[in-house]
Amino acid sequence: MLRRRFLVGGAVSAAAVTPAFAKSKVTHASSSAAEQGSYAAFLAGVRREAISKGLSASVVDDALALTSEPNAKVLKADRHQPEFTLTWAQYKARVITDKKISDGQAAVNKREALLGKVSQLYGVDRGVIAGIWGLESAYGTKMGTFHVVDALATLAYDGRRAAFFRTELFKALAILGQGDITPAGMLGSYAGAMGQPQFMPSAYEQYAASFPAGGRRDIWNNEGDVFASIANYLAKCHWIAGQPWGEAVDVPDSIDQGQIGRTIVRPVSYWATQGVRPQVGGDFTHMGLSGAIIRPDGVGGEAYMVYHNFNVIRRYNPSDFYALGVGLLGSAVA
User: Gene3D superfamilies from the entry (predicted)?
Assistant: First the structure.
């Protein structure tokens, strides 16, 4: 039976590598905190560099005033993340609970009109938007309580991936300079994943959007901006409107395990001739598409036909488990 390791920390959901981590190479620190000198000296260097980049001194000072020493809770979370070895069945049971579904249905029903408008504007399925919202921040209720500048400065000074977090710190300061959020309002996970979509600052710069367009991009408090930002992320990663992400299927024993895998893409019509059938019964409704069969727990476990849009969800977080969780939760709540 196949198993996968996940690290869990702060507001980041089980399974969860945050979006910016999903798209960024992790770079190890070239020097230790001791080699850099005191934290005060480190912050002074950050201030000088930020101002030299054209950022307002008052904005930088307000942001750095939130961090006077390395945050012990951030360092503890970074260094002592509990490690779990989960099967797909175990992961599914953790993230797609009856409560998560009922909470999601209530949240989506309350915001049906807004989700519909954003979905139509970006051409992205509203269920997938809701699924990401649900997995990343429990429908906006758990986005983290760490001050992002404090967390990023701590990890840039004394973390295992100092170079990566230093880059994210300067991007966070640049976002503050744009006036989209205040330093005190820029909250997120211990690793700096921000707001309800859990964007790293680099992801925010590339994908955050306002709805309606033209306003501040507030992914912390404005649900229109939250949904638009998630949808914009997927749209820019080439989501195809009107196509499904995937579906549960029954796979006959006659299909060799060597044909199973996300990269083995064949026309749906081919799979149908091999005896693959939708689990809900009947024939495939998307016979003109191409797809792959994945069976996360191996022979005897659940099987899914996944299409192009499944791989787009994986651009948000490069995990089959995560993409399946988003798709199934989204289908259940929307």
Answer: 1.10.530.10, Bacterial muramidase
